Amino acid sequence: MNRKWNMMKALVVASVLASCSSGLTPVATDAIVPTVVTEQTEFDTDDPAIWIHPTDPSKSLIVGTDKEVGGGLYVYDLSGKIVKKVTGLQRPNNVDIAYGLELNGKKVDVAITTERKAHKIRVYSLPDLTPIDNGGISIFDGEEGEESRDGMGIALYTKKDSSASTIYAIVGRKTGASGSYLWQYQLKGNADGTVTGDVVRKFGTYSGKKEIEAIAVDNELGYIYYSDETVGVRKYYADPERKDDTELAFFAQQDAKSDHEGIAIYKTSDSTGYLLLSNQQNNSFLVYPREGTDGNPHAHKKLADIPVSAIECDGADATNLNLGDKFEKGMLIAMSNGKVFHYYDWNLIQDRIDKGEGK
């Protein structure tokens, strides 16, 4: 145990030294140290998603992207070991997970990633990581200019009714027009065991300042959040059948050092919890109330700004489920420079929130 802990600390220290030598903001001396650091990918980690095992949460897995031409999806166990991977993709950016997609009479869990340079999203069944998309679903068809079709961020929304579930992919890109920057696709399983997607909505205000990559969906409350980098976080309804593209909130405008990046949602009940936003150049996470404040569900005021050891974090995810001894209250997982992901015991995060650190 001591040997593994020392190796993990050495990885964190090496990352800190690398950030200092490259001119990046160094990790704060009081930064939370990760409980687990994953094995390295080949190129450059970007975004993680947590898959919860259906019968034993301690056997849950982390799916993460390796963002480069030739990169792919990596699957890790809760000790950070790589247990499976798919490589050879054309710059996969972000990834998200959904449960129970109806496919040829069966319900299948899926991981979906953007394949940026192929202008596609890719669909893989879990936990086996088998492709089920017949080579990929084309995205942003008809848009002019390569960057207008370069898929980056993705989040999955599962709409449940009394008889079935409908799963949607909300996809962002390198650049696009304000008002239609994000495209929403309804995913459909076919009789041949493959998945296709139909465009059902185009929406989303864009400042034009940098780009929109990080997207997160709150399934229970029915909201989409996305980072308009260097500007703030925008909030919309997730259900396309509402036919309501009103911007519900625009927050964190004055809180980040520069880029607003990965968004994670930690739930304390069906309607309460925290929104966590990567304050990328500050090597910290900004924390906001999921349920809003002062009787307004769309008033998200900063609760804390928590320093972590992850450097220049792009993507993040969180869960409140008991994943075993190291993560009894769940975890926050964050991408870090150094081709790794960090797993943080939620108890360490909650302690800093309770203290209102960096508020």
Please characterize this protein's 3D structure.
The protein is mainly beta and 359 residues long. It has one domain (2-354): TolB, C-terminal domain (Neuraminidase). Helix content is 8%, strand content 44%. The protein has two helices and 25 strands. It has helices spanning 2-21, 346-354, and strands at 36-37, 45-51, 61-66, 72-76, 82-86, 92-103, 106-115, 120-126, 130-131, 137-138, 151-160, 165-173, 182-189, 195-203, 212-218, 223-228, 232-237, 249-251, 260-267, 273-279, 284-289, 304-307, 316-319, 331-336, 340-345. The strands form six sheets. Strands 6, 7, 8, 9 and 10 form a five-stranded antiparallel β-sheet that branches. The radius of gyration is 19 Å and the shape is globular. The two termini are 35 Å apart. Mean pLDDT is 93; it is low at 16-22. Pfam families: Phytase. Residues 1-24 form the signal peptide. It comes from Sphingobacterium suaedae. This is Phytase.
Features of the shown structure:
359 residues, mainly beta, Neuraminidase, four-stranded antiparallel sheet, 8% helix
